Structures are given as C-alpha cells and as structure tokens.
TrEMBL record:
Keyword list, A-Z: NADP
Gene Ontology CC entries for this record: nucleus
Stated name of the protein: NmrA-like domain-containing protein
Origin species: Orbilia ellipsospora
Transmembrane segments: none
A Pfam family that the UniProt record links to this protein: NmrA
Domain NmrA-like stretches: 1-284
Family under the similarity heading: Belongs to the NmrA-type oxidoreductase family.
Length: 321
C-alpha cells in the first residue's frame, strides 16, 4: 500500500514543485492542501489523481483532520501575504502562529514518519541580533518550537531554499529602465560581489530537493538542515545574466539602505536588510549550526537543474518591465 504524502500549499510554487516530482515516481499517494479546492490549479491536480483537500493553517484542528493518515508532510507558510496587509510585526505574529499550528498538527499525526519544514537561516543569531529580518524571524520562531518537541524534531528536516530567480519580477529587484541611456540599472544596498546561492527555477528545482529528502531519511534525519541551491553566483552576475538573456544593457548601482527603503516603503527595508545581511555575512549566510546537508549528499550532484539563465528565459519580461 502506498504511503501518503501531504503537501501544504499544494497549488503554490513550492508545493506544486514537490507534487510534480512525486507524481513522476508514483511511490506516494498525494494529498494537496489548499484554501480553494475549486481553483484551476486545484482542479488540474485532481485530474492527475491528487487528492485535493481544503484546509486552513490558521485552524489547527482543520490541519489535524487534513493530516490524518499522512506518512510525510511538507509544511510551508507565507509571510508576505500578511506583511502586505498588516506590516512586519503583525505578519510575524500571524506566520509564527500558523507555523506552530502546522507543527502541532504534524506532531499529533500518529502515522507521521517525515516532516519537511520550509524555513530560513537564523539571521539574528548569525549577526548577534543586528539583523532581525521579519520574514526570517517568523520562521525561526517556528524552528524553535519544533526543536522544543524532541519527538517531532526526530522526524523533521529543515529545508532552506535559497535565492528565487523570479525575485526579479518584484519591484525592489526589477531592473529599472533609464530612457536617456537606453539601458537598465538595478539599485541595491549590497555590493555587486556579494555571494548568492541560487535555487535557479524554483518551480522546477525545489521539488527535486524535497523529494530527495524524503527518499534519503538516513541523510536528512533527525533534525538535519538541507540547503537547497543549484549554483553559486553573485548579486552582480545575477544582473549580468539577466541582461544577457533579455538582450539589454544593465548596470548595478549600489545605494545605502536608507535610500533604498525610501524608494520602496516597507518592502525596501524588508528586502534591503536581507541584502545587507548577505553583504556582511557573505559565505556564512547559509551556514547551518550543525552543518548542512548538500545536494551531493542527497544524490543530486549530477542532476540537470533549470539554472538561472534558463529560468530568466522562461519569464515573460514584456509583462514585468
């Protein structure tokens, strides 16, 4: 009898990527949790044999019911929806509560063998409290809760997903056209040589890591951290690769955090502090306290990923710019 894999956010980027990878293998029965079971993406999953179930991560009991019989669970929360509606501090409260709801419901699932929690490094600890970046803090609060539950921790893998190439579609990162020079500039509070670990195409590549985690529990458990990246690049090279793919001229312009934040109120500070963190911590940005599991450890060293340039080429720049 096939084991059951339950994926929160089954129609989102991360969840859908994992489901697509699992469907190729057919080893698991798959249950996708979503808020709207009538969406086109939900119906498309159902047509592939995926069980689509409505669940609310604000309601622990709805998760307990949705997790029933699950052997593996993929947990994820979205900071940026409440951030856009309520600002950073309220968003931390909401995402922390949601993540703990998921963890508690997972812990109550008697059949559970493996819990993958999509999270981020602890920037506060890495910088002695200098960079308490809200979208990191919320997930780190959940990390702490999971670590306090030794039984759940033994079944948990912490998954750190690195730079999304499609971050370039968001205004704070999208290159800006300068009409007088017929070229683009990208503003950033970080230097152009800041090391960046990139996941490449998130929709194509995240699922490969998540599914490999499930297939190698001897490597990914107990309580191990996996850093998911397909290539190592820099802030400046990300821009030059974009320019090459789109056929544009582009220059990287470093500014300070205050100016960057003033241009994009709220979002500029949130993302600008992340860039400053990576600038100051550099190669240590994705260091796990007990050492990280790599793609080579997971048997993905020779995997053909969709890299940064290929991911740029798939995006519709006519609509974004």
């Amino acid at each position: 009898m096939s084991k059951l894999l339950t994926v929160i956010g089954g129609t989102g980027t991360q969840g859908l990527s994992l489901i697509n990878e699992a469907l190729k293998d057919g080893k698991y029965k798959i249950r996708a949790l979503t808020r709207n079971t009538n969406s086109s993406k939900a119906k498309a999953l159902a047509s592939k044999g995926v069980e689509v179930v409505q669940a609310d991560i604000n309601d622990k009991q709805s998760l307990v019911r949705a997790f029933e019989g699950s052997h593996a669970i993929y947990g994820i929360t979205d900071f940026f929806e409440p951030f856009g509606a309520h600002g950073p501090q309220k968003a931390i409260e909401i995402e922390t509560a949601q993540g703990i709801n998921i963890a508690k419901a997972a812990a109550e699932t008697s059949t559970l063998e493996h819990y993958i929690w999509s999270t981020l490094p602890n920037a506060g600890k890495a910088t002695n409290g200098k960079y308490m970046i809200p979208h990191f803090v919320a997930k780190n609060n959940v990390d702490d809760y999971i670590r306090s539950d030794k039984s759940l921790l033994a079944k948990t893998t912490f998954l750190w997903i690195t730079w999304y190439v499609n971050n370039y579609q968001y205004p704070v990162f999208t290159p800006i056209y300068v009409k007088s020079s017929k070229s683009y500039i990208q503003l950033s509070p970080a230097a152009s040589d800041v090391p960046i670990k990139s996941i490449g195409s998130p929709s194509a590549n995240i699922g490969k890591f998540a599914y490999a985690i499930l297939n190698k529990p001897d490597i990914s458990l107990p309580g191990k951290t996996v850093v998911a990246y397909t290539e190592e690049t820099t802030t400046g090279k990300l821009l030059q690769d974009w320019a090459e793919v789109t056929g544009n001229k582009a220059s990287y312009v470093q500014t300070n955090l205050e100016e960057f934040s003033a241009i994009w109120p709220g979002w500029g500070l949130e993302m600008g502090e992340m860039m400053k963190l990576w600038d100051e911590v550099r190669e240590k940005s994705w260091e796990a306290p007990d050492g990280a599991v790599t793609k080579e450890d997971l048997g993905l060293g020779n995997e053909k990923f969709v890299d940064t340039k290929a991911a740029y080429a798939e995006m519709n720049w006519a609509e974004i710019l």
